[in-house]
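Researcher: Let's do a round of design. I'm pasting the structure tokens now; please hold your answer until I've finished.
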């Protein structure tokens, strides 16, 4: 039988060594503060405001979903999506914010089979080529007052015509089957 005196005596735990602060901690803290300030200054109430449309709720009932000129994050996202040189992007963003030009999104879908159909989208002198797929393909477009947007069938992926549909907040709008070289006009 053992007595209480035979029990081993437990020593108090040793204090933990002081942890050295990471060199990254102050930098990460500073980036977090700056990022929070930038986020707050953009006036974004909803995180999707500065992104390309990805669901019907993001679209208007029209073919073109315009971005408000005072929505700086939305304008920046649309301008960044344009397939133009960086210097031209800055000019476009400035013109949009000053109300000299409008910017918006058109969302395309291949209405039948995603077979490599290619279209060209032209607005305000900017032409962008895209390959249609079954998933949404948002394309940023710029507009000057009263100017239409032209959509031209460029390449038929596999015989059967270029099959285009527009996604809107009201649903998907398929267009007639087009042959390469045919063009439709979209008036926003």
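Researcher: That's everything. Go ahead.
Model: Designed sequence:
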């Amino acid at each position: 039988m053992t007595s209480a005196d035979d029990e081993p005596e437990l020593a108090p735990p040793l204090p933990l060594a002081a942890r050295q602060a990471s060199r990254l901690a102050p930098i990460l803290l500073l980036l977090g503060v700056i990022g929070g300030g930038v986020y707050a200054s953009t006036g974004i109430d909803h995180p999707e405001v500065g992104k390309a449309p990805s669901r019907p709720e993001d679209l208007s009932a029209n073919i073109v979903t315009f971005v408000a000129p005072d929505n700086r994050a939305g304008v920046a996202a649309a301008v960044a999506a344009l397939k133009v040189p960086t210097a031209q992007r800055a000019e476009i963003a400035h013109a949009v914010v000053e109300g000299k030009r409008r910017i918006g999104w058109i969302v395309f879908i291949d209405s039948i089979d995603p077979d490599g159909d290619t279209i060209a989208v032209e607005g305000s002198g900017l032409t962008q080529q895209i390959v249609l797929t079954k998933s949404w393909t948002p394309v940023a477009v710029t507009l000057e007052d009263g100017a239409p947007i032209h959509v031209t069938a460029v390449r038929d992926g596999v015989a059967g015509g270029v099959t285009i549909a527009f996604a809107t907040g009201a649903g998907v709008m398929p267009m007639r089957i087009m042959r390469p070289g045919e063009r439709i006009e979209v008036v926003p």
